[in-house]
Amino acid sequence: MPKRTPRHEPLRLRFPLLWESTETPPGLREDLDRTDTEFGAKWRRHKTDRLAELQRHEDQLALVTARRELDDALPVLTQLGLLATGGEDLRSSATLTPVDSQSAEIVYRLTTLRLQPAVAVADHELGLVLDDLRQLDTDFLGHAIVREAICSLGKPTTYLVLGERHGGKTKQTVADRKRRLEGRLIELGGRRALSALCEALSSRLANSIKGPTLPTDDPFNQIALLPHEDEFPDVIDVVKVGLWLASAGRDDERRPGFQIQQDGSLTVR
Fold it and tell me: Are the CB atoms for 124 and 194 separated by under 8 Å?
C-alpha cells in the first residue's frame, strides 16, 4: 500500500523517483506537485485509482534502479566468488604473498577491486587481460619468445638458444618472430584492459637513482617473479607483459622492459 503523506505536503515526497525522472509525463508531474488535499479535490472518486497509477510508475522506476545496481554489483560479486574458490577469506587474501599461480590470481584479483568512489572492478580485470593475450594465437616458440626474450626480467635468452630448442630455427627466424610479436603486443596494449593494466602499474612505480622502480613488496612484483606453471598465457604473463608495455619512455616508443635488481626490486632497463 502506498505510504501516507501529510495532507499539506506535495505528493512528490511520496513518489521521489517519479518526480526526479525526466521522462515523467507533464500530467503526472502536475499531480505530484499537488498536496494530498489538492489531489483529492481534483480526482475525487478516482483518487484511489490515480494514486495506484502513480505507485505503479514509481515501482517500475525502483525496479530499473535495482537492476542497475545489481548489474554494477555483479562484476564485484564474481571476483569475490573467484577469490572464495581459492580457499581464502578476504582478510587472509589481503595479506597473502603469492607463491604459485593460484595464489597469484587471488592477489591480482584483489588489486582490481576498487572501493572508492563506489565498489567496482577495475578495467584490468584478469579475465579481460587474459582474453587479450590469447589473441596472440602463437605457438610454443612464440610463447618462449614472449616469456624469455621480450618480457624477461633477467638476461634474455638468445635467439640461437631459442631457435635450437624449437625445431632448429635460425637466429634470423627467431628475430623476425620477436619483432612481429612485439608489434602485436603493442597493438593489444592499446585495448582497454591492457591499457588500464599499464596505467595501474605505472602508478605503482617509484623514482630511484636507477630509474622507475617497482618495489620488492609490491604484489605485482611478487607475481612477476614467480615461475610459470600454466599454459600460456597465465597471470604471470599478464603482469610481465603489462610491465614491458609500461616500460616505454615518454619521448620514445621503445619498451626496454624491466630487470630484477639484487634487492628484488624491478627497474626499467
Answer: yes
